[in-house]
Amino acid sequence: LHQNEKKKLVAQSALQYIQDETIIGVGTGSTVNFFIEELKKSNLRLKGAVSSSEESTKRLKEINIDIYEANEVSKLDLYIDGADEINHNFEMIKGGGAALTREKIIAQISDKFICIADESKYVKTLGKFPLPIEVIPMARSQVGREIVKIGGDPVYRQNCITDNGNIILDVHNLMINEPKNLEEQLNNIPGIVTVGLFAKRKADILLLGTSDCVKNITL
Ligand code: DER
């Protein structure tokens, strides 16, 4: 199965978790785009969605789904999103789509985080994918120096301003054996808005697209 077919399959299998007349959290990225396509084809009647990016908002509006602001809901039952990497403890690297801040906020208010991913994302150790961090523009150089101090190699993501007006540094060469510790350590660096490590708040269910089926994995 081609990678896109795996993405489509896992997107489709996420529908089974959705109840009619509910508001769901929607992530960002190509796998989520397939999920939005599947939503359009389904006869699910959603009350609405809290979206993690302008890009997903545009696509949700195109299929006439009402958009709710995060401030309008106290919590969500479900959050559907992809990942750049997810380990066997369901900790993730996210931010490839530059939406990590709103993704992390919506994940925080959601009871169940369903990660939809093709098997290439499923890894033993996080860190082969460069770790995205969202940074206040004026702090870029000093955050870069702090990252070097802890052994990372920060690369400025060209031509990328996030929905929140910030920049992204992609941190290479970090082998992340203690995701939670690293997330907390990076959270403390002034100027870092969001770390693309989802370890304090992990996924709850992984729908994994493999070469012949969708594996529904829980911890
Ligand atoms: O930006 C993100 O965190 C997204 O979830 C993303 O990186 C996953 O993208 P993909 O579904 O296009 O692989």
Automatic annotation (TrEMBL):
<comment type="subunit">
    <text>Homodimer.</text>
</comment>
<comment type="function">
    <text>Catalyzes the reversible conversion of ribose-5-phosphate to ribulose 5-phosphate.</text>
</comment>
<feature type="binding site">
    <location>
        <begin position="81"/>
        <end position="84"/>
    </location>
    <ligand>
        <name>substrate</name>
    </ligand>
</feature>
<dbReference type="GO" id="GO:0009052">
    <property type="term" value="P:pentose-phosphate shunt, non-oxidative branch"/>
</dbReference>
<dbReference type="InterPro" id="IPR004788">
    <property type="entry name" value="Ribose5P_isomerase_type_A"/>
</dbReference>
<dbReference type="GO" id="GO:0005829">
    <property type="term" value="C:cytosol"/>
</dbReference>
<dbReference type="Pfam" id="PF06026">
    <property type="entry name" value="Rib_5-P_isom_A"/>
</dbReference>
<dbReference type="InterPro" id="IPR020672">
    <property type="entry name" value="Ribose5P_isomerase_typA_subgr"/>
</dbReference>
<feature type="active site" description="Proton acceptor">
    <location>
        <position position="103"/>
    </location>
</feature>
<feature type="binding site">
    <location>
        <position position="121"/>
    </location>
    <ligand>
        <name>substrate</name>
    </ligand>
</feature>
<feature type="binding site">
    <location>
        <begin position="94"/>
        <end position="97"/>
    </location>
    <ligand>
        <name>substrate</name>
    </ligand>
</feature>
<dbReference type="GO" id="GO:0004751">
    <property type="term" value="F:ribose-5-phosphate isomerase activity"/>
</dbReference>
<dbReference type="InterPro" id="IPR037171">
    <property type="entry name" value="NagB/RpiA_transferase-like"/>
</dbReference>
<protein>
    <recommendedName>
        <fullName>Ribose-5-phosphate isomerase A</fullName>
        <ecNumber>5.3.1.6</ecNumber>
    </recommendedName>
</protein>
<dbReference type="GO" id="GO:0006014">
    <property type="term" value="P:D-ribose metabolic process"/>
</dbReference>
<comment type="similarity">
    <text>Belongs to the ribose 5-phosphate isomerase family.</text>
</comment>
<comment type="pathway">
    <text>Carbohydrate degradation; pentose phosphate pathway; D-ribose 5-phosphate from D-ribulose 5-phosphate (non-oxidative stage): step 1/1.</text>
</comment>
<keyword id="KW-0413">Isomerase</keyword>
<feature type="binding site">
    <location>
        <begin position="28"/>
        <end position="31"/>
    </location>
    <ligand>
        <name>substrate</name>
    </ligand>
</feature>
